[in-house]
Specification:
Methylamine Dehydrogenase, Chain H, about 10% helix, mainly beta, 5 helices, about 35% strand
């Protein structure tokens, strides 16, 4: 064999080897893809609370009888379903003082496991809240659940066995709203924000051990239910938490505050949405910007309407704060004393109604530099977070009024147009495959066509009260009703 022939043979062998490597790699990818699940929905509103799914084959028309793949009873609850690796995780109150965590097969509804936890005595809550109000989070290996009297609990996703439990202070609410905070998981850590009227904080735990990594007080916060989200701008990743008057970015490694945007309102029930370098919020709070907490307390707690807040009208958890502000010891607080007692002097923010877009990142006070647009008097009522989908911001409010705005500049595309379902809206809109799903408390699901003009595709009756935001994974819709879960899919016969 000549030298030239040898070189050609070596070259051919190298090419064959490269081809075989590429072929093997390609086959490996195919095999892995075929064995892996296409999509997870690991926390409230899916990936980073976006409310957007990559699923394509979703039904537009369905009901509690039509296109139902499976259903299961869960007990009373309003937390959303989360999905990972073909398993669906839910929570519910299965008895007066029993909190349960469920795991079902996403395709068949087969119950893999159920774990029950005695809750002990429970605090008062204001209807329509449920004691099982928190949405779990999962990383596929474990599912992380929160309950007011139990704290944070990590369960093995396959077996349901408890990996760890981290006790937390019992939250306290001036108006008995009840607990409703939900955890998230990010890069091996569980993040949890608890804004109440007594001692607010944000917390990071090690996902494997449950050990505390850091805890940062939020002393100037009042009760709220915003779920933390992750924002990355110019190589800076922040844990963003919305609260009374403020949108705050924390260092996820240390818990130190990096930036603050003082653009929100007193009560924050909704969660931020991150798209690119922008954070979107829609907030409605009782009163106007000048009407601070005292006005709400006088309306809701002053039962004899004498213009003063008496000690007996105040939850016992707040008696220490009450007594500290009751300078003349007459067991009653006037308007000025109420402010000093229950609202932080550096955060006397009022109410109102706003939808806004804020640029993420930065350092210090970014209020004057980072608010891209702000619209007054168009936000939803209390609990429906906005949906940002294909450069449009969708919001819905009580009475079935919907609005849509351009995400870039906030310009109106349609405004307060009524959907075909009246009543309250606690569930937040979600979207996939050109469809927007809007769920009313009375159990109707309105499906909209994504676009700059309102087009209703269908109105679907699920025949039961729904307060939980629906979930989507692998071409299936999951509706957590007041007492159970219904899985809707084109797979249904």
């Amino acid at each position: 064999m000549s030298s030239a022939q040898s070189q050609k043979m070596v070259s051919a062998m190298k090419q064959t080897s490269s081809f075989n490597f590429l072929r093997t790699s390609f086959l490996t990818v195919i095999l892995l893809s075929s064995s892996a699940y296409a999509e997870d929905w690991p926390q409230f509103r899916g990936l980073n609370s976006s409310g957007i799914s990559s699923s394509r084959n979703l039904p537009a028309k369905f009901s509690h009888e039509d296109k139902v793949l499976w259903r299961a009873s869960l007990g009373d609850g309003i937390g959303s379903a989360v999905i990972a690796n073909g398993r669906v995780f839910n929570t519910g109150m299965t008895a007066k003082q029993v909190f349960s965590v469920f795991c079902h097969d996403a395709k068949t509804g087969k119950e893999f496991w159920r774990k029950d936890f005695p809750t002990g005595n429970l605090a008062r809550i204001t209807p329509p809240n449920s004691h099982a109000s928190s949405t779990p989070a999962t990383d596929g290996e474990r599912v992380y659940v929160y309950f007011s009297t139990l704290g944070l609990i990590a369960l093995d996703a396959k077996t349901g066995e408890r990996a760890w439990q981290h006790k937390l202070p019992l939250p306290a609410y001036l108006m008995d709203w009840g607990a409703g905070a939900s955890p998230i998981v990010y890069k091996g850590r569980v993040y949890f924000s608890q804004d109440d009227d007594l001692a607010s904080y944000v917390l990071a735990l090690d996902a494997k051990s449950g050990g505390k990594i850091w805890r940062t007080p939020r002393e100037d916060m009042l009760a709220g239910y915003a779920i933390p989200v992750i924002s990355t701008v110019k190589n800076q990743t922040d844990l963003v938490v919305a609260g009374s008057g403020k949108l705050i970015g924390y260092d996820p490694e240390t818990g130190r505050e990096r930036w603050t945007c003082n653009s929100l309102l007193r009560t924050v029930m909704t969660s931020p949405v991150v798209v690119g370098d922008t954070i979107y919020m829609a907030v409605q709070s009782y009163g106007d910007r000048q009407r601070t907490l005292k006005y709400a307390l006088m309306q809701w707690l002053d039962t004899n309407q004498d213009g003063r807040l008496e000690r007996a009208e105040t939850p016992k958890e707040f008696h220490v704060k009450f007594d500290r502000s009751d300078k003349n010891k007459d067991k009653a607080l006037d308007a000025k004393e109420i402010e000093n007692a229950f609202q932080h002097p550096n955060n006397m923010v009022g109410g109102g109604n706003t939808i806004q877009a804020v640029r993420g990142g930065g350092r210090g006070d970014v209020t004057k530099t980072h608010v891209r647009w702000d619209i007054d008097n168009k936000a939803p009522s209390n609990l429906a977070s906005p949906l940002v989908f294909n450069d449009r911001v969708y919001v819905v409010k009580s009475g079935g009024l919907s609005s849509c705005f351009n995400a870039t500049d906030g310009k109106t595309q349609w405004d307060r147009t009524r959907l075909r379902a009246y009543g309250d809206y606690y569930a937040s809109p979600i979207a996939a495959a050109g469809k927007v799903f809007v769920t009313s408390r009375n159990g109707f699901v309105i499906v909209l066509e994504d676009g700059s003009k309102l087009k209703i595709l269908s109105k679907n009756d699920m025949d039961e009260e729904i307060l939980a935001t629906p979930s989507i994974a692998d071409g299936r819709l999951f509706f957590r009703t007041r007492t159970g879960i219904i899985c809707v899919s084109n797979e249904a016969k």
